[in-house]
Design brief:
The complex is a heterotrimer of chains A (519), B (98) and C (303).
Chain A: E1 12-13, E2 16-17, E3 50-51, H1 54-61, E4 68-70, H2 81-91, E5 97-99, H3 112-117, E6 121-126, H4 131-138, E7 146-148, H5 153-159, E8 167-172, E9 174-175, E10 181-182, H6 197-202, E11 205-210, E12 230-233, H7 240-243, H8 254-269, E13 277-280, H9 285-301, E14 305-312, H10 314-321, E15 325-333, H11 336-344, E16 348-350, H12 353-357, E17 371-375, E18 378-380, E19 385-386, H13 402-408, E20 411-415, E21 419-420, E22 423-424, E23 426-427, E24 442-445, E25 448-451, H14 458-467, E26 472-473, H15 475-486, E27 494-503, E28 509-516
Parallel strand pairs in A: 3-12, 4-5, 4-8, 5-6, 6-7, 7-27, 8-11, 11-12, 13-14, 13-17, 14-15, 15-16, 17-20, 18-23, 20-24, 25-26
Antiparallel strand pairs in A: 1-2, 9-10, 18-19, 21-22, 24-25, 27-28
Helix pairs in contact in A: 8-9
Chain B: E1 7-9, E2 17-22, E3 29-35, H1 38-55, E4 61-67, H2 72-87
Parallel strand pairs in B: 3-4
Antiparallel strand pairs in B: 1-2, 2-4
Helix pairs in contact in B: 1-2
Chain C: E1 11-16, H1 20-26, E2 33-37, H2 47-61, E3 67-71, H3 80-89, E4 94-97, H4 103-119, E5 128-133, H5 136-140, H6 142-146, E6 152-157, H7 159-166, H8 178-191, E7 194-197, H9 206-219, E8 223-226, H10 232-238, H11 243-261, E9 267-269, E10 272-274, H12 276-291
Parallel strand pairs in C: 1-2, 1-8, 2-3, 3-4, 4-5, 5-6, 6-7, 7-8
Antiparallel strand pairs in C: 9-10
Helix pairs in contact in C: 2-3, 3-4, 11-12
The chains are: A alpha/beta (519), B alpha+beta (98), C alpha/beta (303).
């Protein structure tokens, strides 16, 4: 069957019935009470929940073959918790698990691929499967397709009962022996633990894993003791070098700077750019540069923002310190500066990832966003965006919160170069559709700005940008330009086997990825 | 043009292509391609290589390409340069007037 | 001579002939003049490679909305003949000639270009010239050089080599090249061609760039060479004409129109005669205003 963005998807894969995507705002939530595996309990005896090893905790949780386990990815590529937990599980001979972290980052030694090959894991559900695992999945590693969900969709799926988590392992940079835990202090601070809140409240069993035990009560505490079953102290939760990465340096690439500056000019030209506006810019090279240019525009015109949302960077913290933004709502911290800032500044706060992005609650913060700046691998002439797969058919990224932000923000701005090397990024049809074109207001490239005539704010944005003398082009012109430089690429060949299902934020299927044929 | 000695043109920078041309006595044309975009443009790159060699009347050569996503016209330029260097002659620009 | 279209020259950017990625990207910045370089940015060992690359790039991917040039090697270099063979065949809008000191050098190059134009069936004189003056001798001869060939559309003064030839010290304020800038400017005005100012070398000093560009604009220059893409938007802004300049340009053009209607030979405005260069300058002013997004003739856009 074909869904509303024209993608051919199967009706059923094994026992999974696919609901086709119908439109960005077309589907309503179920009227059922939200789902959770959390049970009532008596207080842990002896004033401690501390266990000696991960193995003990796995056993105490009663983890069995076929169950679902979860993790957060706030330690990014420095994470060593996932590897330690899966190794312990394998040692216990438990098999056939559903692995449902908030995202899979590229962790090596051990790699997730090893645990799939030996049968410890047989299903994966996450926002992205970067690196070695992603490439192996595209090459047909797994029997069952990987389900990819946006940041907003994961808590939605958990509350809808589509993803029930039996045991959540929550890594923390500091915790007490009774389960109060945080990412804000300790030698391996990672900042916000926003992705884990839903796991803490909805999982059947919750294990906190830390390498830094503090006196009771741990303060601040992001994860509350009332949800935690066990605490394990390990030698180390990760590689401090990779977890505590300093502020990203501003890019020197003049092309990226040009795109970033144009995106900031788009925001500044909009009638929504006035006191108390709100924005989200993200963490890529273009995003960080765009944050700096936005700061210049705000200073020049003496405009202050009410809040910035999502993943935080040192660049945004600096704006806060200058008094340019009143509140930073952090669902994630992208660098060490942003990680420490939550504990230090009253207006920089950690928020639940569901509060950030869940489409089926009584209000996510991104519904109040004026501007969202998004990175992309590809965009097509229908303004559909691909943030997962490279044009040669390799797994390059995760869904993250991009599709959520595009749907929530008044004006969503997708930033990308028209070509990368010889790879065209503005195409006739993206290889994988992740964000539907109807939610994309504007595409900013080095070759000009294209507005989406199908977007709700098209007319006002066009008027505002023309008044500011910004160079507008059509998306078709950008596509033709890219093709005139690169030539027409040979399409990627796939088999019929679906290896990934790309869910939209409402749980419908916006696209599937099929196994790539390698020559 | 006769390939007299091995010669290189281009670099391994992004968007460039490093091309080595070597004598290939009695073996005609042989090409080895390594490319970041082989899946998308491998065939097109090989076609360009053969076209340029024909335009330059090179009957025998071994060509190695290490492509970092160079545009077609860059591959052309690098190959023309490598061939002229390997043949130890200057390019006859009147060839472009045809 | 057929009247040429007005080409803005507020900003020039060089793209080095050694770097494919620079050449591809240079197309996307807002510079008015894009110059593919075979000279200073290309080491001796890469002169041949750069020639092939620049030829292919201009032939296949030249931007449509820019004034496109190729900078060849110097008049006495061993590379010039082959540079000209390649560069003319790439059919750019203009060639930029470095280190010019005497009018006869330009005449010689112009003749050599004409020979190639003829051979490849291009109309003789199609390719414009922008000449760079980079030494005291060039400054002294600026007037003759500016008038050396009808191909010349602009003359640029270049400070780095000039300072060395003067035995001067290069400073940020640039007093040591102040005379040279003015001498070149005067020569350009006398010849009715555009005058392009020196680069501002410190790419991190935005305030300094603004000050230097404001000075260039006030002195009368039509544009400035940029050393980095980041300078382009700033420099373009300064070469946006003021309302006073726009009003004056409109009056000049009205007077010319009126003169044509009345079939007058000489047109006078405010007691002075309007010559061809003045008319061209008025058109340029309006084109600059248009490029900056100002609507100078009511709501109607200039084409």
């Amino acid at each position: 069957m074909k869904n509303a963005v024209g993608r051919e998807i199967p009706e059923r894969i094994g026992d999974y019935a696919l609901k086709p995507y119908e439109g960005a705002y077309a589907v309503d939530p179920s009227k059922e009470p939200v789902h959770s595996l959390r049970t009532a309990a008596k207080p842990a005896a002896g004033g401690t929940k501390l266990l000696g090893t991960i193995e003990e905790a796995v056993r105490a949780c009663g983890l069995k073959d076929g169950m679902t386990i979860s993790f957060h990815h706030s330690f990014r590529e420095g994470d060593e918790i996932v590897g330690q937990v899966l190794t312990a599980i394998r040692a216990l001979g438990i098999r056939g698990l559903r692995f449902a972290p908030s995202a899979v980052v590229n962790i090596k030694n051990p790699s997730i691929v090893d645990f799939v090959k030996d049968g410890t894991i047989d299903r994966i559900e996450a926002s992205g499967i970067r690196g070695e695992l992603g490439d192996a999945v595209l090459a047909g590693l797994m029997e069952k397709p990987v389900i990819l969900r946006t940041h907003g969709s994961r808590p939605r799926a958990i509350e809808a009962g589509e993803l029930s988590i039996d045991v959540a392992f929550i890594g923390a940079s500091a915790a007490d022996s009774y389960g109060n835990a945080t990412g804000q202090i300790g030698p391996n601070a990672c900042g916000s633990l926003g992705y884990s809140f839903i796991d803490a409240t909805a999982a059947g069993r919750v294990v906190v894993v830390t390498d830094y035990l503090v006196e009771y009560p741990c303060c601040p505490a992001s994860i509350s003791q009332q949800y935690v079953d066990y605490v394990v102290k390990v030698e180390r939760i990760g590689d401090p070098e990779k977890i505590g990465m300093g502020a990203a340096r501003l890019t020197k690439n003049p092309r990226d700077l040009l795109i970033a500056e144009r995106a900031a000019r788009v925001m500044a030209a909009s009638r929504l750019f006035k006191d108390n506006f709100s924005f989200q810019t993200g963490a890529g090279a273009i995003s960080i540069a765009c944050t700096k240019y936005l700061e210049e525009q705000m200073e020049e015109r003496s405009i202050k923002a009410s809040f910035a949302l999502g993943g935080m960077t040192a660049a945004i913290v600096e704006m806060y310190k200058k008094g340019l933004v009143r509140v930073l709502e952090c669902s994630q911290s992208f660098d060490a500066v942003a990680a420490r800032a939550i504990a230090e500044e009253p207006g920089i706060v950690e928020i639940d990832n569901a509060l950030y992005a869940n489409p089926f609650t009584k209000g996510a913060m991104l519904d109040r966003l004026n501007f969202g700046v998004l990175a992309a691998l590809e965009v097509d002439t229908d303004f559909n965006v691909n943030i997962l797969t490279g044009s040669s058919g390799e797994m390059m990224g995760g869904l993250g919160g991009g599709p959520d932000v595009a749907a929530g923000a008044d004006i969503s701005i997708v930033c990308l170069p028209v070509i990368r090397g010889r790879t065209p990024s503005v195409t006739k049809r993206v290889f994988t559709c992740c964000t539907p074109g109807e939610t994309v207001a504007c595409v900013v490239t080095e070759a000009g700005i294209a507005l989406n005539p199908r977007h709700a704010r098209y007319a006002e944005l066009k008027e505002d940008l023309e008044r500011a003398n910004l160079k507008l082009v059509t998306i078709e012109e950008l596509q033709k330009l890219a093709e005139s430089l690169t030539g027409v690429p040979k399409p990627i060949e796939t088999t019929d086997k679906v290896v990934c299902v790309v869910e939209y934020r409402d749980g419908t299927v916006i696209d599937v990825i099929r196994e790539i044929k390698r020559g | 043009m006769e390939i007299k000695k091995p010669a290189v043109a281009g670099s391994l920078e992004s968007s460039d292509c490093q091309i080595t041309v070597e004598p290939n006595p009695g073996q005609g044309i042989s090409v080895h391609l390594e490319s970041d975009v082989k899946a998308m443009f491998g065939d097109s790159i090989l076609e360009t290589v053969h076209t340029v060699l024909k335009e330059l009347s090179v009957p025998e050569a071994h060509v190695e390409l290490r492509d970092r996503g160079a545009l077609d016209c860059v591959i052309r330029a690098r190959l023309q340069c490598a061939v002229c260097r390997a043949a130890e002659t200057a390019y006859d620009w009147t060839k472009e007037d045809a | 001579m057929a009247e040429k279209t007005i080409r803005l020259k507020r900003t020039s950017l060089y793209a080095s002939g050694v770097s494919p990625v620079n050449m591809v990207q240079a197309v996307f910045y807002n510079e008015d003049m894009l110059i593919y370089d075979l000279e200073d940015s290309v080491p001796a060992s890469e002169k041949d490679a750069a020639r092939f690359l620049v030829y292919q790039m201009v032939k296949h991917h030249r931007p449509k909305d820019k004034y496109v040039g190729i900078r060849v090697n110097g008049i006495y270099s061993e590379y010039l003949e082959e540079d000209l063979q390649a560069a003319v065949r790439a059919k750019p809008d203009f060639l930029r000639i470095p280190k010019v000191e005497y009018a006869r050098e330009v005449q010689d190059i112009s003749n050599r270009i004409a020979a190639i134009e003829e051979k490849i069936g291009m109309e003789t004189g199609s390719i414009d010239l922008v000449v760079n003056v980079e030494s005291y001798m060039g400054v002294i001869n600026a007037m003759e050089i500016a008038k050396a060939s009808p191909r010349i559309v602009a003359m640029a003064v270049s400070a780095e080599d000039l300072t060395a030839s003067l035995k001067a010290q290069r400073t940020k304020q640039g007093l040591e090249v102040f005379y040279a800038r003015n001498a070149v400017l005067l020569a350009c005005r006398a010849a009715g061609i555009d005058a392009l100012d020196v680069v501002f070398s410190d790419i991190n000093d935005v305030a300094g760039l603004k000050e230097d560009t404001a000075l260039a604009k006030n002195l009368g220059f039509d544009g400035k060479t940029c050393i980095h893409p980041r300078q382009i938007d700033t420099v373009n802004t300064y070469f946006t004409p003021s309302m006073k300049e726009i009003r004056y340009a409109l009056r000049v053009l009205e007077a010319v129109e009126e003169g044509k209607r009345q079939k007058k030979g000489a047109v006078v405005l405010d007691g002075g005669m309007i010559d061809k260069p003045m008319e061209l300058r008025a058109l340029t002013t309006l084109a600059q205003a248009e490029a900056a997004g100002l609507h100078v003739r009511g709501e109607e856009k200039l084409s």
